[in-house]
Structures are given as structure tokens and as C-alpha cells.
Amino acid sequence: MINKLISLLISMLLIASLISPVLAQDYLFEIPEQDIQIFIEDDGSITIEYYYLFKNQPGAHAIDYVDIGMPGNSKYSLGDITATVDDQPITDIQDSLYVDGVALGLGGNAIPAGGSGVVFMRAENVRGQFYIAAVESEEEYTSMRFQPNYFSSDFAAGASDMTITFFLPSGVLDGEAIWFSPKNWVGDETPASEIDSQNRLIYQWSSANASPSGKYEFGVAFPSRFIPADVINAENTFTFNPSDALGVAIPVLCCGGFVTIFGLVIYFAAKSAKKRKLKYLPPKIAIEGHGIKRGLTSVEAAILLEEPMDKILTMILFSVLKKDAGEVITRDPLDIKVEKTLPEGLRDYEISFLNAFKGTKSSERRKKLQDMMIKLVKSISTKMKGFSRKETITYYQDIIKKAWDQVEKAKTPEVRAEKYSEAVDWTMMDKNYDQRTRRMFGTGPVYMPYWWWRTDPSINRTTSTARTVGGSGARSSKSSIPSGGKSKTITLPRLPGSKAAASVTNTITAFSAGVVGKMSTFTGGITNKTNPAPKPTSSTFRSSGGGRSGGGSSCACACACAGCACACAGGGR
User: Fold this and answer.
1) What confidence tens digit (pLDDT) does each residue in 86-101 have?
2) Strands 232-233 and 130-132, how do they pair?
3) Verdict on whether the full-model pTM lies above 0.85
């Protein structure tokens, strides 16, 4: 009897020894490549695509299930999710027991130990992802934040060539959209951007050194008008108060780790993105050469100094008006009458400027003005080759200073008007231009430059008999102005100083509000051509659809805005 018991015990130990290696098997894999695409649809839903190339380790558990976390607060249906493994349909799609998302059962196509496979999942009609964005803008913006699915570090190892791509709603322009600096990202924080064949703006981040267990966060914002208003959560906004810190910390606990309060990040990131759009000079201009580039016009110097676009356009406006090539017929909205016969000696950018105002549609004008500025910026880049930007900027800043000195030292109102007329374009580049203009004019009376009637239709003027033009026309309240080949005497009133100053500074305001529109949008369209974000070197844009890769423990959060709650589960199998 004892011998039988001993034999039975030995047999059980032998069986256990055979089974234990199998029970000891666990998930252990690498993900050499992953591609995540987020499509923001026009109806206010999002479509998410995951592509995973799995390399299962020798001796590891077969990858039989892949758990993929879904966005926090999202609403979706399992019926809107499709998946494949090595291009073979996955029919076992259910709610995951381990993550706040879905489980993909690979069934007979499980990826064996030592093998590799591609898992692809597409989730359509995912809702509840948009919130009011804390963006400084004249119009309302909506934002979305997305944390891609990641895998437990207990199961996933190695580096991953990772690409995350946002497809914005059709029609959103690069100058209108905002991308936020990624959190914890190991690649370039500036995304590549382009417009696809469906007129969708694409932002793409890539890194060959990402981790499959990395918790990365990305975000974009765009004008709310591009999606239905009823899909934007207007209630869950974020206002940070130290006393509310606990209440904020609890909902942003995600997958066992703390997520930085995104409302603050979104604010400063938006400001940073907005600032970058205003940097339209290409970096190569900053490469130091030797010596000063002389001979630039005031407008070209303004480009080198990277002055705001509305100020530069106003400088061009003053230039063409001084040359009798047109006149302002309304200030609000700003409209310019272009002379039928243009004077000789106009520069190429002045002709392009006037041609832009021959169109009647504001969008057409804005596009032509952007094209003109793109050519100007590129021409400055060419002219500055071999010259020192630093020395050249110092040189033109000295010209600006001397221009103001000449105006301010004028001893009579008539001489001051003449000097101001000659140097108005240079004086505009002074950072205190508005204040210095008002201080210079004082309380008046002020004699305006001879051509000033062309800038301000509110100035009363009378026409007398023709006489020969003489001098600059600024030394008297009566000036001879050529028009249509004939000489006419224009009698200008002497304006009070405050009105004279307002007439000058309001021209810039009129340009900004009536023609340029939102400054970051206008300049962003130029920056995208002259100083575009760097392109990724490790990958290219993928088209949607097709078969892809997967498996293991996962978790994902996709939140939006300014302080929305984020919740997802950890775990895995």
C-alpha cells in the first residue's frame, strides 16, 4: 500500500514537472512598429485606427487576445469596431475584462511563441471627445486630447517605431488649427503637417525610439464651427484653484499614474503654438555670414525684423498711396480704389498688393496677400545669403532711430509733416510707434502729409483750379496732387493732434480687422510655406484601412480640453 502511494506521488510530481513550464508561460513580446490614426469626422465623431506589428518572444504565451483601451468618456458600439490579424477578419470582439476598452480574440490565428503578426483595429463613430478649448481667439475653439493605447511593461519590451496621426475635419486650414506639445513624447514635439487628397489637414508625430508601454499624450484644437455644436461638451471646462487640487487630481488618475493637469498644459501649449505661427522667417536666415546687407527697402527690412504682418501690409499701403497708385475709399471694411493707370517705378510687391485689392472677395484678397508675403519672405532669404543677420538688423534699427530723431527734432509743424511723410514707413517699425506718434502730434494743430487724403476718406478736402506741382506739398495746408495726368490743388485741413494720431494708428487697426482677420491664421498660412514644421525622417503618412498587428495588456485615455475627466483601467492577460 505504501509502495502504491509512493508510486502515485512520484507520478503526480512527474506530471506537475511537465505542466509547470506551460503554466509558467506569460505574455512577452516586442512591438517593432505601431501606427495610430485618429480621424476627426465632420459629424463630431472620431474614427480610431490601430496598427501593431507584434514579435512574440520564444517560449512566451501565444498572443491569443489583444486588449485595446478606448478613449475615456467615450461612447461607442462594438458593432462599429472591425479588426484583422494578418489580414484575416477577427470575429471575436467583446468588452475587455482587463481594460476600459475591447478585447480582440485572435482564435486560430493567435501569434505563436517566436512568431510575428499584424493586428489592425478600426473603431468608428466614437463620440464624446470634444470640449471647449482655452484658446485666445476671437472665435470659439474646440479641443481634443488623445493618449494612445499602451501595453504593460511586464509584457512589452524593446523600442517601437511609433507614428501618431491626426486627420482634422475637412476644410480646416493650417493657420486655424493648433497642435499641443506632446506629453512624455520621445520624438520631435513639432508635428509634420500636410493637406491630403481629401482636403484634410494632417498633423503627424513620429519616433523610432518610442516605448510600447509609453504613456504619451497628444492634442489638437480647431475652430468649433467645423463640427456640430451639440457634440461639444461646454459644461466640463477647467478653472484651476489650489483649493480644488484634490478634486482635480482624482479624475485625472489614469492607469495607475498621474496625468498632469492638462488644462494648464493646453493653455501654455496653445500660446506656444500661436507664437510659432508668427515666426515666418526660415531658420537659414539666422545662419551667420559676414557684413551688412544694405539697400533693403523699409518693407524688406521689416520682414528681416519679423514685424507683424498687419504692420508690414500697412507700410506697403502707405507706399503705394504716396506714389499715387490708389486711395482708401472705406476704412471699415478697408477697401482700396486702384488707379487705372499705375505710376512707373512700383516694386513687384506693390503691384501684387494692388492686384489683391482688385478682387471683391475678402478670402481672395487674403490669399493673394499671403502669396505676396510668401514671395517677399523668400526673396529676403535669398538676399541675406552670405550676410550677417545680426549686423544687418542692428544697421536697420539705427535707421529707424534716426528717422524718428529727424521727425521729432523738426521745429515747425510743416517741417515735421514733411519729415514724417518721408520716414513714415521706417518710423512704423519702432516698437513704441503708436505712443511716439501720439506724443509727436500732441494736441495740434497738425499739417498732414500731402498724400494723406488718400488714406482717410473722412478728411474733408476741396479741389481748386489746377496748378503745377511743386516740392513735397507738405509745407502748406494746400498741396498739389497729380491725378489722372492732371494737376489738382487739394486743400487739407489742419487736424487736431489727437485726430491726426488716430488717423495714422487706426489705419493699421483697419488692416488687421478688415483684411488680415485673425493674425495667427493669416501669418500661419505664410509660416507653413516659409518656415514649415520639420518633417519626420523615420516614416511616411499611411492611408487608412488595410490589415495591421497586436496583443497583451493595454490602456488608453482620450480626453479633451481644459480639464475633462480621464478614466481607464489597467491590467491584461
Assistant:
1) 999 999 999 998 888 9
2) parallel
3) no
